[in-house]
Amino acid sequence: MPYLLNVVKGKEKRVIEVFGYHGVASKKALIGEYVVAYDPKCEELRYLDSISGYVRNISKIEDGEVGRFLGLSDVVFPKVNIETGAIVRILAGEYQDFRGVVRRLANDKVEVDVIIFGRLRPIIVDREDVVPDSLPEGFRL
């Protein structure tokens, strides 16, 4: 039965090392500050200085439960249709808040022409990182 141990930050390697001396198989968990141990002797070792708590009887949860826990189950992500020649605004990355014109569409990528330092530059961004927009009044491409 696996045990999930809450470890003081930065002491994960030391706890794994000490468990190894005692013959307990353990490894660092994917989430920080946790160690997973696979031996009943772990209960005796959980009172080390670097361990602040432990979880026993880890159970599986469904994706829907994770969504409800994170508050994502009621969120609806609208699908936005973008066409070649449309004016878009970039939402993420180094070109965040730039506006440009869609030059080409791929499966999940969009090539956008953006004006940088007075020159037209083609950049490629993910499709979810752009939204339809309009140019400011009096501005032309």
Question: How would you characterize the overall build of this protein?
Answer:
The chain contains 3 helices and 9 strands. The model has no long low-confidence stretch (mean pLDDT 76). It folds into 2 domains: 57 residues; 46 residues, SH3 type barrels (Roll), CATH 2.30.30. The protein has 141 residues and is an alpha+beta fold. The strands form 2 sheets. It has a 5-stranded antiparallel β-sheet, with no helix packed on it. The chain is 16% helix and 34% strand. The chain starts with a strand and ends in a 9-residue tail after the last strand. A hairpin with a 2-residue loop joins β7 and β8.
Helical stretch tally: 3
DSSP summary, beta strand count: 9
**Rg, please?**
25 Å
User: Structural class given helices, strands, pairing?
Assistant: alpha+beta
Order of helices and strands: EHEEHEHEEEEE
Tell me the major beta sheet: 5 strands, antiparallel
Please mark out the parts with pLDDT under 50 across 5 or more consecutive residues, or reply none.
none
Percent helix: 10-25%
Mean pLDDT score, rounded? 76
Which features does this protein show?
2 domains; alpha+beta; 3 helices; five-stranded antiparallel β-sheet; about 140 residues; SH3 type barrels
Describe the structure concisely for a colleague.
This protein has two domains: 3-59; 87-132, SH3 type barrels. The protein is built from three helices and nine strands, in the order βαββαβαβββββ. The protein has helices at residues 12-21, 42-45, 63-70; strands at residues 3-7, 26-28, 34-37, 51-56, 87-90, 99-105, 109-116, 119-126, 130-132.
